[in-house]
User: Which sequence fits this backbone?
């Protein structure tokens, strides 16, 4: 059973990565490239300010711009890549935006997942499919106990509900089409991922970084909310381990998996804001006078015992180190540093930390 990543497995491996222009997809494309994989990316065009553009990810992959809501686009990308491994990350990823565009959110996150999985049925060399959903796919009861993989799917807002529905789609395709022979299929549910190069609107860490780069005190909407914060590389490392085991024919890996921080490393928003502003050298943060009444979960924790005990995965950086890395990344880039080189260095550091345990 793998407890470290195997670069030899990925050398020359054909990988289709949907959502490669996004924050998490860009980091995964960079990691796969470092290990020698041949990556084809399918995604909407990157935002003007994004890790994808800053780190020139298009130079490292076969870059296809397209919408997973179009079945023909997905089929064409699948045929062009003929993948051995598929990572499906493409999504509408924002809770609050889902209130503004619920139809697009469901179409992308649910029907888009159907399109990707159905195209996978006709990929002749495919061995492993890893679908990325969300910790918010669980029916959130606002309790202090962390959610386990066996807990029911749900969702109050359109984003969370769409991710819960995507989990049902994945389970149906696993049982109906990928149960015997052919590729193995897993879903992965990560906590709130953070890291250098995340510029998404209406997310805590990017909002704080944007304000500090502009020399302004950040506005913190819900200082007492609790989320399973973790560096993006922690989650991606788990995804890679799952893919390696699926490709090796390990049927036990074809399930749902949580990847989040250690049980004693979950903190409220206020704790995050304090440390980011201190690390940047800024004097504190403020709360807005008025806060939108849109529903957002106040407490959310993940139980990752299954990943630790069965897969051998474990978080290695922790929240304090993750925040230090974020400040380092953004300070260096703001001072004219090369985002690709900075990202490569942090990725190499993380891989060394993971190997050392």
Assistant:
């Amino acid at each position: 059973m793998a407890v470290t990543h195997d670069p030899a497995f990925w050398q020359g491996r054909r990988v289709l990565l949907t959502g490669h222009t996004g924050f998490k997809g860009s980091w995964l494309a960079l990691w796969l490239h470092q290990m020698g994989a041949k990556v084809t990316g399918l995604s909407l065009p990157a935002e003007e300010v994004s890790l994808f553009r800053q780190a020139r990810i298009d130079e490292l992959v076969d870059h296809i711009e397209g919408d997973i809501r179009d079945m023909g686009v997905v089929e064409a990308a699948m045929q062009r890549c003929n993948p051995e491994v598929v990572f499906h990350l493409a999504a509408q990823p924002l809770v609050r935006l889902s209130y503004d565009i619920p139809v697009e959110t469901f179409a992308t996150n649910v029907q888009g997942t159907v399109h990707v999985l159905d195209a996978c049925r006709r990929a002749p060399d495919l061995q492993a499919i890893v679908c990325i959903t969300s910790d918010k796919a669980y029916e959130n009861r606002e309790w202090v106990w962390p959610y386990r993989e066996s807990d029911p799917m749900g969702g109050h807002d359109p984003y969370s509900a769409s991710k819960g529905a995507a989990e049902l789609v994945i389970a149906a395709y696993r049982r109906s089409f990928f149960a015997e022979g052919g590729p193995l299929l897993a879903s992965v549910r990560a906590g709130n991922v953070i890291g250098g190069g995340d510029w998404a609107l209406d997310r805590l860490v990017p909002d704080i970084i944007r304000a500090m780069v502009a020399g302004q005190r950040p506005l913190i909407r819900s200082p007492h909310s609790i989320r399973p914060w973790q560096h993006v590389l922690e989650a991606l490392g788990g995804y890679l381990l799952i893919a390696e085991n699926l490709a090796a024919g390990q049927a036990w890996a074809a399930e749902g998996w949580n990847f989040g921080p250690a049980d004693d490393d979950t903190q409220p928003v206020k704790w995050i804001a304090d440390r980011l502003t201190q690390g940047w050298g800024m004097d504190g943060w403020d709360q807005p006078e008025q806060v939108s009444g849109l529903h957002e979960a106040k407490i959310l924790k993940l139980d990752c015992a299954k990943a630790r005990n069965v897969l051998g995965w474990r978080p290695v950086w922790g929240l304090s180190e993750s925040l230090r890395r974020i400040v380092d990344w953004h300070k260096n880039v703001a001072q004219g540093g090369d985002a690709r080189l900075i990202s490569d260095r942090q990725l190499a550091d993380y891989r060394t930390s993971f190997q050392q345990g």
About this structure: The mean pLDDT is 92. The two ends are 16 Å apart (CA to CA).
